[in-house]
Amino acid sequence: GIFFVRKKQKTLLTCLAVPLGVGAVSGFLTQGSMNTFEKLKQPPLTPPGWVFPVVWTGLFAMMGTASYLVAITPKTEERKKALTLYGIQLAVNFLWPVFFFNAGWYLFAFAWLLFLWYLVYLCTKTFSEISRTAGYLMIPYLVWLTFAGYLNFFIFLLN
């Protein structure tokens, strides 16, 4: 009945709020380093600065939706594994901008990004086994991380 619908709505809002909140806090923590970043030598294909928060907001909404599709399935060990991987990759994602923007550790940040990519790959694979749609919703995140890896690596080389 109505209780079940409200519970699902609350779950959806929570699943969206968590990654969007992680992104917002991470963005807040790194906003002071944007001037330094803009002065760095940039590789070809670097988008204008406004693109990053727009893309990340969309990606966080998609991954939140994917986590919701997994969270509403019956409790199983596979679901627990998928949501645990999801939480770990979110924590790793949260730290990357701090390493890259605040600390300026470009090579370490690149290695961290490779670790993040692997975690997101595992999360995507595990999500796909539970909900094909959830897996599909994670693919743009992997594509963006691949592009971010290119940018990160070449910023390291050029600077």
UniProtKB/TrEMBL annotation:
Keyword check for Transmembrane: yes
GO cellular component: membrane
Segments traversing the membrane: 12-30, 50-71, 83-99, 105-124, 136-158
GO biological process, one term: tetrapyrrole metabolic process
Compartments reported by the entry: Membrane
Domain of life of the source: Bacteria
Cross-referenced InterPro entries: TspO/MBR-related_sf, TspO_MBR
Family: Belongs to the TspO/BZRP family.
Full protein name: TspO/MBR family protein
Native organism taxonomy: Bacteria, Bacillati, Bacillota, Clostridia, Lachnospirales
